[in-house]
Design brief:
- 52% of the residues lie in helices and 16% in strands.
- The chain has helices at residues 2-10, 29-38, 50-58, 60-68, 77-84, 95-107, 122-133, 149-162, 175-183, 198-203, 211-215, 219-226, 231-234, 236-249, and strands at residues 14-18, 21-25, 43-48, 71-74, 112-117, 138-143, 166-170, 191-194.
- 34% of the residues are buried.
């Protein structure tokens, strides 16, 4: 086990370009991140999908935040498709699964986690569900995302005092990426991960797509069914596919 930990610590992510950004390829993301926790190495982790990639093409500030992140994970099916067009097979790593696996891997080490984001009550319920599953999990605090002004200032002070080893931020894209980039100095040795709507799934206030949809890269269909107001954002998917094809033919 010690030898495996040393190998994971020394493993260097392989960076692959994608439409002006890049993704990092590793053999095992949760285990690698657990090794970084053991080394007290601060990281910003971005889970990249097609929608975020297209947002970054029209938002230079977001593109810069993604480029400066220490680890960019291939979250979306579109990202996998992009590389298959180039005859490069990579595995998709859904951010919600990676974040859950990191909680499981780190529970035995008692690594400390903090949940921030979502509607009032959601992060608390998500933490409660995890404590039921993993009695050893060390979630040191939660905070919903609907805070401003003095509340935000007090929350930032709390993070500075706690110095959790991992902070999951679920504010949605791109808000969570900007928030992490602006505040990661509060906990410089912490791993910060944007987890989108993961808290809702963990709290069971929303459900994830059935396995057969996920396995066939159609999770976006179920999400659109749950949240039809997202249809305009989903237009980024065919746009991403077209840009990937054009980029391949260059």
């Amino acid at each position: 086990m010690e030898l495996e930990q040393q190998q994971l610590t020394s493993e260097q992510p392989q960076s692959l370009p994608i439409l002006g950004l890049s993704v990092d390829i590793l053999s095992n993301y949760p285990q690698w991140l657990a090794a970084q926790i053991a080394q007290s190495r601060g990281l910003h982790v971005v889970t990249l999908n097609a929608e975020m990639t297209m947002q970054a093409r029209s938002n230079p500030e977001l593109a810069q935040v993604i480029q400066e992140a220490e680890l960019v994970i291939p979250d979306g099916a579109g990202v996998v498709m992009h590389f298959r067009l180039r005859r490069r097979k990579i595995d998709r790593c859904p951010g919600i699964e990676m974040a859950a696996d990191l909680l499981r891997v780190s529970a035995q080490q008692q690594s400390s986690f903090f949940f921030f984001g979502g509607e009032p009550g959601v992060t608390e319920l998500a933490a409660q569900k995890w404590r039921q599953q993993l009695p050893n999990v060390n979630i040191v605090g939660t905070q919903h995302g609907y805070i401003t002004g003095d509340e935000m200032e007090n929350f930032c002070q709390t993070l500075q005092q706690l110095q959790p080893q991992v902070i999951y931020v679920g504010l949605g894209v791109p808000r969570q990426e900007f928030w992490i980039a602006e505040h990661r100095h509060l906990c410089p040795n912490t791993i910060w991960v944007g987890v989108g709507g993961s808290f809702d799934i963990w709290a069971e206030t929303k459900t994830r797509a059935p396995g057969w949809l996920c396995n066939n890269n159609l999770e976006w269909v179920y999400r659109l069914y749950q949240e039809p107001w997202r249809w305009q954002r989903m237009l980024a998917l065919p746009e991403f596919a077209w840009c990937s094809l054009v980029d391949t033919l260059k």
